[in-house]
Amino acid sequence: MKVLDRILSRSAYSAEIDLPLEQIDIEEWLFSLPEAEYLRCCPPDHIAAGVTTTDDGRRMSINVEMIGTGLVVQHYVCEEAGPAYVRMNSISDVFTANGRTQVNVVWELIAEAIEGGRTRYTNRVTAHPTDVFMDFLEAHQLSYEAAAAARQDSGGDHNRRETPLFAASIARRAKARAVQSAA
Fold this sequence. Notes:
Layout: E1 9-17, H1 26-30, H2 35-40, E2 46-53, E3 59-67, E4 70-81, E5 85-96, E6 99-114, E7 118-129, H3 131-139, H4 144-182
């Protein structure tokens, strides 16, 4: 099995937004998210955030957060973006007690219409090992299974806590945009 075919961890959590899908714009929210708002979306884990571009002009979101005991610097490059779906891909630096390694993280932000003029927001995060990660495990005589279990526990817990706060932030941004357009 190729390293990129392996799943290190996967989680998806959903939260409802009391607004219709037509008012939601995940792409606009993500790429205009102030750092202070990002910090409110998973305290104390979220540490810093910013938006930039790659050398070839693709949009990026840089997020710094604690996931379990690892300090993670995520370099999310936008692969697909629209009001109801955004897919970001990052080769993330992870700083652990054993040193620095890297994982490949795919972050999907999904909005779908549900009954009653409401929206379901789903935050899906899938982590894959990189060659650097596999070499790190070997160098420190750590088992892949133990690393995957730890990542699943900590990543799942983090996602569970941030998803409803992301949904609330997306709703606040949609309401603020509605007020601005009405003015």
